[in-house]
Amino acid sequence: MQVPCTRTHYRMRFKPPSFPDLSRHFPAFFNPSFIPTSYSRSFFPAMATLSTQKEPLSPPTDVTHKTHQPLQVAKRLEKFKGTIFTQMSLLARKHGAINLGQGFPNFDGPDFIKEAAIQAIRDGKNQYARGYGVPDLNFAIADRFKKDTGLTVDPEKEVTVTSGCTEAIAATMLGLINPGDEVIVFAPFYDSYAATLSIAGANVKGITLRPPDFAVPMEELKSAISKNTRAIIINTPHNPTGKMFTREELQTIASLCIENDVLVFTDEVYDKLSFDMDHISMASLPGMFERTVTMNSLGKTFSLTGWKIGWAIAPPHLTWGVRQAHCFLTFSTSAPMQWATAAALRAPDSYYEELKRDYMAKRAILVEGLKAVGFKVFPSSGTYFVVVDHTPFGLENDVAFCEYLTKEVGVVAIPTSVFYLNPEDGKNLVRFAFCKDEQTLSAAVERMKEKLKRN
Ligand SMILES: Cc1ncc(COP(=O)(O)O)c(C=O)c1O
């Protein structure tokens, strides 16, 4: 079914997006000598994109030939050659540090979902799946969305299954954004937005959320959104801050979007990790479903980040664009894992309650521990991240602090400057992840108590 897009005023003027050039701010981490002229083992870490979530690329072991060609990359991705996460992980390994940087659990997902995947493989569900999702999963996603938001969506026409939320993000940007379109993001932001917006050729406008509460600066937002804005990206609960957008904030954004005919792309992968308030889906606000793409995935909710099953829910006129891009990005995603994800989404309420309880206990260990160490800890209402101010310890910026923490203390955190359009905004802040077993969290706190001294 082809549904025409309701927007007609595409702006084709191309203005390259501006993203942080971290090399100017943190030369130590972007030392050009790190980018060699030949394909040696030390070359390959430099290829990793800025990602906080994935294992860094390991140097391949089967490279036997050497060339002397300069690095090549399309201009749209030139800015993303940063290697800070690879550097942090290499440092972590070298110093035997406890890794509270990477955003994935160090424990496994539930057996009933793994059994469902094994069963699906045994049942022969192993060939290409239907492009927009196996029917059972589209139905399960629509059911879950109804339970969560009260909205009834058509599983066949309004749900698209993707390879993780990452692909939902890419398909949404590529399917609905034209070169030169203005897109508003709240900084700090998950790094996939920057890369995919760059690929889409968007003109990015950032609005900075500032500590202590990372509240939306309403006046700034009101003057930023205009009829020239194509879309705004929201991530709630929010990586890296743990902020959850309040109803008041969402309502203000919603009315500005309706007034200016702006689309909303909302990333809700941490919706089930909402601790201090109820998660609110933008799509559930009056008048918003028809202009919203809601993106989510299996990974965080079921501690199965490696499975990479995600989805985008949107009205047919937006789903069309998302599916057009998805069709050529991956076409379809892992069939047996989709069947297992359908089983996961039918988990009883008790599963979600227990998940929250467990994560709140982990959050308490880390937050109390960080306070006892001497950090200024900002509130984390959702996600499995907490952001702290490292300045009591006297290091020059977030990168220098994280380097010190890894080398001298034996704990890894993530510098937040990489999440900002202007890296200076993040120089006092670092992010810790608490998606780790309690023993690991306590051990990290003990190391910091012992070795990290306030200035
Ligand atoms: C805010 C946010 N969105 C999307 C993703 C990616 O989700 P997935 O693993 O389902 O692709 C992450 C991963 O960490 C994230 O933090």
UniProtKB/TrEMBL annotation:
Q: State a single Gene Ontology molecular function.
A: kynurenine-oxoglutarate transaminase activity
GO CC terms, sorted: cytoplasm
Which cofactors must be present for this protein to function? pyridoxal 5'-phosphate
Per its UniProt record, what SUPFAM superfamilies does this chain match? Answer: PLP-dependent transferases
Give the keywords, sorted: Aminotransferase, Pyridoxal phosphate, Transferase
Keyword Chaperone: yes or no?
Answer: no
Transferase in keyword set: yes
Where are the membrane-spanning stretches? none
Aminotransferase class I/classII large domain: residues covered: 98-447
Protein name per the record: Aminotransferase class I/classII large domain-containing protein
Q: Which organism is it from?
A: Acacia crassicarpa (northern wattle)
Task: Give the taxonomic lineage as stored in the record.
Answer: Eukaryota, Viridiplantae, Streptophyta, Embryophyta, Tracheophyta
